[in-house]
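Per your request, structure below.
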């Protein structure tokens, strides 16, 4: 890939953003030498119930979670749209705003990527950006070639490195690639955080201290009935 910049795109409901999300982004950042990571909270997720926290609260928590991380930036691109948030639509909007396919790396966990065939505009969505897929507890990237054999020839294993990865894939004939990154990520979910809050339990260590303070100050996720009905969204 002969591009002057590598931009990671990390999307999600982020209801709330947690340490697992940050670990996934950091692993992709380290393995692929990304110069920038854009965090995009979704407006209305296509496969999940509506978020409990408002768009404002979720964007605020994302901004707090990534504060002090050089090159990480919260972006309200999906929140500005009054429609369901689909990865293919978001990547196309980024193309419309001047980003090119070779410089975009869509970051996701292996637990979500294994369902890629259910995503809108599959398989064309895979041609809009490279994909950086990171292991999640119970969903190692090493299982993906066997679970998604039709995509195996586009998959490349990458090591997590402390310095920018200077590997040159310019001669690859497959166009956009799927980079598989095996790295430890926190075993936590937004569902577990919401349920802990409903039970008045501590969420220390599940989110950053700034996000924990924001949640507690604003009384987020204290309604046990709403939390119980919110499903198992990541």
């Amino acid at each position: 890939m002969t591009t002057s910049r590598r931009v990671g795109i990390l999307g999600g409901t982020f209801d709330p953003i947690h340490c697992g999300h940050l670990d996934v982004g950091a692993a992709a950042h380290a393995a692929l030498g990304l110069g920038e990571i854009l965090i995009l909270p979704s407006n209305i997720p296509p496969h999940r119930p509506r978020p409990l926290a408002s768009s404002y609260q979720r964007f605020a928590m994302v901004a707090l979670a990534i504060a002090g991380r050089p090159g990480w930036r919260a972006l309200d691109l999906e929140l500005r749209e009054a429609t369901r948030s689909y990865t293919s639509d978001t990547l196309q909007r980024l193309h419309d705003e001047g980003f090119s396919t070779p410089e975009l790396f869509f970051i996701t966990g292996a637990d979500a990527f294994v369902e890629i065939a259910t995503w809108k505009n599959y398989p064309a969505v895979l041609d809009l950006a490279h994909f950086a897929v990171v292991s999640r507890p119970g969903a190692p990237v090493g299982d993906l070639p066997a679970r998604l054999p039709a995509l195996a020839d586009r998959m490349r294993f990458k090591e997590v490195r402390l310095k920018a990865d200077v590997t040159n894939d310019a001669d690859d004939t497959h166009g956009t690639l799927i980079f598989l990154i095996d790295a430890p990520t926190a075993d936590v979910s937004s569902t577990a955080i919401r349920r802990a809050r409903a039970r008045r339990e501590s969420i220390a260590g599940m989110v950053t201290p700034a996000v924990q303070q924001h949640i507690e100050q604003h009384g987020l996720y204290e309604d046990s009935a709403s939390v119980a009905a919110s499903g198992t969204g990541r």
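Strands lie at 7-12, 36-41, 72-74, 104-109, 130-134, 155-158, 178-181.

Regards,
D.
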